[in-house]
Amino acid sequence: MELCELFKQYLQHLFLGKRCEAREVVLAAHDRGVTAGILLQQIIWPASEQVDKLYRDHHIDRITEHMASRINRMLADQLHAVVARKPKTGRRAIVVSGEGEVSELNAQITSDLLEGEGFHVWFMGAGVPNDEILQFAGKINPDLLCICGAQPGDIPDIRRMIALIREVGVCQDMQVMTVGGVFARAPGLTEEVRAELHAASPGEAVRLMQDHPVRIPLPDMPEPGRRRKRRRATVVPAHRSRTAPGD
């Protein structure tokens, strides 16, 4: 069965809240040889994005959104156990998320796919204070900080967190990547918060890390809406610059 047909069948069961039927579609595909990584990237994640968009656009009600989101999460949990994992490379990643089922699922799938590529992953979810993330990053010295599924209300805090990380100078080589969420809907927002990379999906996040394994620091620029303070030149008054008679 083609993936597009598989996706169509899955959505039909998903929006009707049919847990058993949705599970059967996905697990039967896995039995036929479709890998867990592909199912996460091309079935579960796109379905979650579809649910989120339809709910935000008021095309489905809250009950449908809740049922569909929980089916997606249930199957992501089951696929987690069978994701093919390469040998550990020593690379490390911290994954955090915005609030809500879709954001958490974004982060969970991103974590699973990074683990599949040999990363050690610490998945924190939502609501961890900036200073605690900073402290933990200082302990494990990660190569990557993934911010998944952020919502508009999260942006000021994300901006402060990245500024704090760079100001303190902890984890100088760590890259910051935004994945999905409001960053996928607002071009340029990733650059505005001073993150190095943006991926529209968890699968793209993995590909970006393969293409950009080393952090290239961004040029030093003032924060949006703020001007740099210019150092005022010290002007010596004329009557004090001259040597007085008798000195």
What would you say this structure looks like, in words?
It is a single chain. This protein has two domains: 78 residues, Orthogonal Bundle (Methyltransferase, Methionine Synthase (B12-binding Domains), Chain A, domain 1); 120 residues, Cobalamin-binding domain (Rossmann fold, 3-Layer(aba) Sandwich), CATH 3.40.50.280. 52% of the residues lie in helices and 10% in strands. The protein contains eleven helices and five strands, in the order ααααβαβαβαβααβαα. The chain has a five-stranded parallel beta sheet with strand order 2-1-3-4-5. The C terminus is likely disordered.
- Described by the principal axes of the CA atoms, the overall outline is globular
How large a portion of the residues is in β-strands, by DSSP E? Answer: 5-15%
User: Looking at the chains present, what oligomeric state does this protein adopt?
Assistant: single chain
> Strand order across the biggest sheet?
2-1-3-4-5
Give unreliable regions as ranges.
Answer: 225-247
Class by SSE composition? alpha/beta
Our count of domains comes out at 2
Helix content range of the residues, please?
Answer: 40-55%
From the 3D structure, determine the CATH topology of the largest domain: Rossmann fold
The CATH architecture term of the largest domain is: 3-Layer(aba) Sandwich
CATH level-1 class of the largest domain: Alpha Beta
* Beta strands, count: 5
The H-level CATH homologous superfamily of the largest domain, spelled out, is: Cobalamin-binding domain
Radius of gyration: 24 Å
* Main beta-sheet annotation: 5 strands, parallel
Number of helices: 11
Give the overall pLDDT as a whole number: 88
Distance between the termini: 97 Å
